Task: structure prediction
Amino acid sequence: QVTLRESGPALVKPTQTLTLTCIVSGFSLSSNGMCVSWIRQSPGKALEWLARIDWDDDKYYSRSLKTRLTISKDTFKNQVVLTMTNLDPVDTATYYCARNHYYDGRGYDYWGQGALVTVSS
Amino acid sequence: EIVLTQSPGTLSLSPGERATLSCRASQSFSSRYLAWYQQKPGQAPSLLIYGASSRATGIPDRFSGSGSGTDFTLTISGLYPEDFAVYYCQQYGSSPWTFGQGTKVEIK
Result:
């Protein structure tokens, strides 16, 4: 059974750094073709793609947020970590992690339930 | 970066009616990498269609996708009450991957 679960702080102060963890089960982050992404959604707004890390440790970032984001994975802990620096109230959003398989071309077939992060002083 | 523009922003329809949602890309890409997702309030998105026209596991056949190049369409042949939701298209063929801004299908 494939699951993804986001964890992290619910409240962050402006200018601080946010660290979110996606804990996965039912698949291996090192399996050939496996990718995990972070996607966020501000209240009432559309989905925004943030970053992706692949089985071979290749990493991709949103162009607009590239300078503030770092994605990494720990295969042994089954975790994907996203850090975002210099938080601003506009970063208030629900942050999702989702997986896709690069070679089967199906898009995001499993999603976490999301973690709401509020940026406020 | 490929920009996806969805239209209309909101579609007001009655149960049983046909819904046609559009997703237009700023540049052409392989239809193999176009997906549609459904999102209901308070829930994570869920995969409906991948590869522009393939239904994900368990998706009823009233949902269909089509298109190629820069123009893609999601059609719901007859709306059920549970189909009223927001729908997003996404391209995953060219990094950075991108989503459209969504189309809300609401009850008229």
Notes: The CA atoms of residues 44 and 97 of chain B lie 18 Å apart.
